[in-house]
Amino acid sequence: MISKLILVGVAVQLVCATACPPIVSRDDWGGYDPFHDQKFSGPVDIVIIQHTDTPQCTRDSTCKTMIRGIEDYHVDTLFYNSIGMNFLIGGNGKAYEGAGWDQIGTHTQGYNNRSIAISFIGNYEHDEPTDDQIKIAQELIKCGVENKYLSPYYRLVGHRQLIATVSPGRNLYRIIRRWKNFLPDLSSISN
Ligand SMILES: *[C@@H]1O[C@H](CO)[C@@H](O)[C@H](O)[C@H]1NC(C)=O
């Protein structure tokens, strides 16, 4: 009995230490593993927020179908190593694994090997992100820092600050400008 209690105690501590939101794995949504291992060599110091420029999704099954479509396009048409973004966030408040924490993604030329891209499913020039979507993205970033995938000194930027795109859309960009570690002036990270 006592040893069972100790085990439960240890398990609870482990869960608290990682503090990560549930992440739907590539296996879960039917994605493929990257063709080649191209891993980050240490903690990453830039977080890029983007949007997928697709309709929004509010149901798990719809989100998964859309993500498989994005993967098909990235891998079959653009010949990326894997689905381009590191994570995707559905309007249902779920985080989906793309290239993930340790694989270098393909999303922002010149920055891929030093950044994690988190892409909100939808088009936020027109749509508004849901509260759950905002919350899960912030939890994911916190989880990245606590597990040392992200530097504690990471900088957060909008996709549009780095390349010619409206992504993540004006409605989402307005919101992320108030997030922790948002970087308005890029001179310190420019290539
Ligand atoms: C990223 O790639 C560039 C160009 O190949 C290289 O100069 C740079 O050192 C790389 N950065 C990291 C963090 O690996």
From TrEMBL:
Residue pairs linked by disulfide bridges in the UniProt entry: C20-C143, C57-C63
Domain N-acetylmuramoyl-L-alanine amidase residues, every copy: 32-169
Pfam families reported in the protein's UniProt record: Amidase_2
Gene Ontology BP annotations: innate immune response; peptidoglycan catabolic process
Coiled-coil region list: none
Complex and partners: Monomer.
Stated family: Belongs to the N-acetylmuramoyl-L-alanine amidase 2 family.
Identification of the protein by name: Peptidoglycan-recognition protein
Lineage summary: Eukaryota, Metazoa, Ecdysozoa, Arthropoda, Hexapoda
